[in-house]
Amino acid sequence: MKVSELSRESFRARLGGEGVRLAAGPFNCRLQSGVSEIADELAHLYAHHPLIDDSAFVDFHVAIQPGHGLRRWVRPQARFVVDAIEPFTPLPRDQSLPMLEWGLNWCITAYSQHILVIHAASVARGRHAAILPAPPGSGKSTLCAALVNRGWRLLSDELTLIRLDTGELMGLARPVSLKNASIDIIRDYAPEAFLTRPVRDTSKGTVALMAPTQTSVEAVNTPTRATWMVLPRYRAGAEARLTPMGSGAAFLQLADNAMNYHILGARGFAAVGRTVDQCRNYSFEYSRLDDAIAVFERLAEDAK
Amino acid sequence: MNLVLSVLRQAESIRQLGPSEWDLLIRQCRHANLLGRLYERLRAAGLEAEIPDRPRNHLQSGAFMAEQQQFSIRREARFLREALAPYEIPVILLKGAAYVAAGLPAAQGRLFADVDILVPHDHLGTAESALMLTGWQSTVSDAYDQRYYRRWMHELPAMRHIFRGTTLDVHHTILPPTARLKPDARLLIEASVEIPGLPGVRTLSLQDLILHSASHLFHEGEPDNLLRDLTDLDMLLRHLGQDDTAWDGLADRAERLQLSGPLSLALRYTARLLATPVPVRISKRLGSDATGGIGRHLLDQLYNRMLRPQHPSTADGFTPLARKALYIRAHWLRMPPLLLAYHLAHKALFPPAQEALPAMDDKKAA
Known about the structure:
The complex is a heterodimer of chains A (304) and B (366). In chain A, the strands form 3 sheets. In chain A, strands 6, 7, 8, 9, 10, 14, 15 and 16 form an 8-stranded mixed β-sheet that branches. In chain A, strands 1-2-3-4-5 form a 5-stranded mixed β-sheet. With 304 residues, chain A is of the alpha+beta class. In chain A, helix 4 runs parallel beside helix 5 and helix 7 packs across helix 9. Helices cover 32% and strands 30% of the residues of chain A. Chain A folds into 2 domains: 3-111, no CATH class; 115-303, Rossmann fold. Chain A has helices at residues 8-16, 39-45, 96-111, 140-148, 181-189, 214-218, 247-257, 261-264, 266-278, 289-303, and strands at residues 20-24, 27-33, 60-66, 77-82, 91-92, 115-125, 128-133, 153-156, 159-163, 169-170, 176-179, 199-202, 205-210, 225-234, 241-244, 280-286. In chain B, strands 3-4-5-2-1-7-6 form a 7-stranded mixed β-sheet. In chain B, strand 6 and strand 7 form a beta hairpin. The radius of gyration of chain B is 21 Å and the shape is globular. The chains are: A alpha+beta (304), B alpha/beta (366). At the A-B interface, helix 3 and helix 8 of A face helix 2 and helix 4 of B.
């Protein structure tokens, strides 16, 4: 059964009660919230995700709860709680939804040292995946959202997961976090995509979340190999251009963006090395999304 | 239900766990900082194949973290040695860092927050300057706390390395000078042993590591790590007990260092909760299996609650009271009543500011 098959009332009741239990790629999550106004948008964001059994093992028991005491009413706050632990200070209540997503990212980063976790977006065509590591502001999420609305499957917008044993990528197909100008760009570019109402004044500016496409969620467990590593950079007026990157530089890019490279030690070194060896590595400059999509189309054609 | 304890006592019992029990076990282990240790324990018992995939990911995550920390502890030990060697101050590792460097079974899967070293009191000032010159900075900026540590405590305020981010506790003895029990640090230093393969780096002797662990646990242990510390003691005691006569040596040593009290408690709760095989003559001698008495009954009530994973599933109505009682007991043992009253009054009037965590570092997952 999928989240979208629950009635609006029953989703609300679960969220406010024992929790909505769903699978996001390799992770089983139980989402609870005493902040009821996030329910409808949350149900849209996770519409296609499968619900899991009540007795199934849950990786992350997370909740968004109202602030303590006065902070429930006066300049209301929301708290992120993972199994009775609160890793962050509370945020204004209207940031509840982005906070849930940041919180889930925190759980994956803090609790998953059995895989290599890279701060990067990843998208796939069939069994071939492109990893897009990049610093904030490089247009990584915008490019990722555009690709996902033009036939690429979303693996992850924020955290790329690589298995240490097989080197395969694991998809999450969780919502894409769009910031500032990219919100309107994607609204124009893909009017059919579901975006949440923008939340202003977060630590990252204005944020809206985009729901992953149905195929991304349904095919999330398809075994996928990293085939391209593309370091994107948005530059106003630039022609879309791929420039091959040496494997040494590519290694440093991936290692530098790996959240747990320092924890995994030799295992991390081997996993990054294997990924770089099996990928064609590029840096990529672009300004117009359509041109960028065309470049990625050609990459996908070549891989066939 | 305390699943961690039943699995630690009886590793085979994991065969009977269903998915929701695995779920609870992992959550309890995480709250007790025991993920890595349980993984190593199950592996040693040949039960790795019996762990379902999802829980294994979490246990393995803990084990990988521990492995990496052990690597960095050995490296830190070398850096400390380089910082202190020019002043002929020995590096004597304590607690977790000592278990790792000495390759003791108690190092298995252990996670820790800092490195602890013991420095002779006369060399404390020199050692602090030498450490500051090599990049260690005090983490305590509050003037009262600085004074409090320097005047009343057995250690300097924690130091953090500006580049590597590791935290260091520099002790000059193992209990606060104001505590009722006064183990002589000189005896500990005299008995310390050099680690083969790490020249210039020493640890306390095995007996003294046990006595330090016991006095730490029952004097000042942080609530979240009490069960983890008890498993340390269990492993240290089993290691020592391979030679049956070593138990008597341990009891003699405890008398000499005025630490029979903490040792007795350590033997009481390791034997009761983790089935540590303490010889009867030893438990008789230290009175660790005695029953009756209001004081003992209250302590049992307190430690039976605190020596659990500090997770909602193992708490009951008295857990908050037990936490408070433990805090008061720790302070009571640590300083005479007047000083305690002064210290608590100061803390009540000027509560420490709560540390504000950034919502998330920009590089770490936007």
